[in-house]
Amino acid sequence: xxxxxxxxxxxxxxxxxxxxxxxxxxxxxxxxxxxxxxxxxxxxxxxxxxxxxxxxxxxxxxxxxxxxxxxxxxxxxxxxxxxxxxxxxxxxxxxxxxxxxxxxxxxxxxxxxxxxxxxxxxxxxxxxxxxxxxxxxxxxxxxxxxxxxxxxxxxxxxxxxx
Length: 162
What we know:
Oligomer: single chain
Helix content: 55-70%
Number of domains: 1
Distance between the termini: 82 Å
Largest sheet: none
Radius of gyration: 19 Å
């Protein structure tokens, strides 16, 4: 009787994690397609292929908004995102709030992507946060063929005159 219990438990766990793995693969493919098309649409063909590399595709989002973030962060946002991830990996075990920093940076960058494709980007960011990020691939896939609501602003250097 005890053997049947462990066999049933094992099969349940295999089924659960197998389903989770399958859903993860499907979400990765949806995100990769969406991010690839968004990068192409924004004329970043040189880095669009990064959408197909796991983990690195998160950096593609920061690369796409590098010139849209707060002026003090422009040009170095992706490096700061990388530093935040490294710090979170090293110190996240000791200081539990540290892993929130790269998540906040990701959603900040994601907001600027959404701002280009929808009139209500905050709604989609809130949905992404509430779903713990599971909605991000679906949202990117949804926006892949949408026309831009607002083009990227033409940025001027500080102190430049018109």
